[in-house]
Amino acid sequence: MKRILTLALAILIVFGTTACGGKSASSSSGDELGTYTVRVAHGLTLEHPVHQAYEQMKSYVERETDGRVKIEIYPNSQLGGERELVEQVKNGTLEMAYTTVGPLTSFAPEFMVLDIPFLFDSYEEAWMILDSNVGATLSDSLNQYDLELMCWMESGFRHITNNTKPIIAPADLSGMKIRTMEAAMHMANFSALGANPTPVSWTELYLALSQKLVDGQENPVGNIVDIKLYEVQKYLTLDGHLYDAAPMVTNYKWFQSLPAAYQRVLKEGAQMAQNYNRYMNYLCEDQYTQILKDKGMEVIELTSEQKQAFADLGQPAVIAEVKKNIDAAFVDQFLASIEEIKKLETVQVS
Fold first, then answer.
1. Which of 94, 141, 241, 289 has the fewest CB atoms below 10 angstroms from its CB?
2. In the beta sheet, which residues pair with residue 218?
């Protein structure tokens, strides 16, 4: 199944934005459409699949507009952390940004529903749901906050690392200082598991771990490799407690002010970035895990029953917290829609 999906994703990357039909932006008058510079920022390194996905978008957009729309990419948190980037986009001082859901919830609380742990069992399931009417409902909710969702990037499934002992059951987290991003639902989850969640910025995480200001943290394996957390962490528990969707956002009013041809090309470029990001993240996850093993980390793979013990504590607590912040009926409908989609039969090609 994984090989079939890999081939399908590769086809999407190559052909996903070239079969849309209609005239390209380059067929219109440059004087008529004008020229634009679009700054895109994220917090990861040049080697991370997210950055490579943006390079794909840059290449496509600049080619399709004959260079009249230029993409400038700012990696490594050059323009700030994710929360700061979203704020800049909302205020119109930055054109686009990559952000995981946690920081986005400070501006668009509806997205808290995606921070409920153990919502998705696989990448395929997460993609199917985010690309359905469920994801569209969340996407549409952004406009009231002066934001526009360009596409659903991803960071991957989040896992726990620490420097104290193997984490196999929730009781192993008791009293442990676990770094989280400054996201209320992430903190609620680890509080329910008995840990002491401690917000630390991404740019300060390595130092905080090396100085033992916190005992551990949680991130996708790609991010763990990206900033070499294997140098300061011993144990990795593959619990996959959260699928970290990462919306690419732009300023709604700015985007609507662009010529329609440029809006279309930017959306197509964003779709290409999404497809590439998903493909590479999915393809490389096993490689990232092996790198961490080779670097000396002890990797603990939990059974489904062991994961359920974490879900039984964390999920109800977070759902209750989410309902304190947004309409409970919206949360219930969101969860019910996910369950309905999960019941759909999947067709596998033999």
1. 141
2. 160
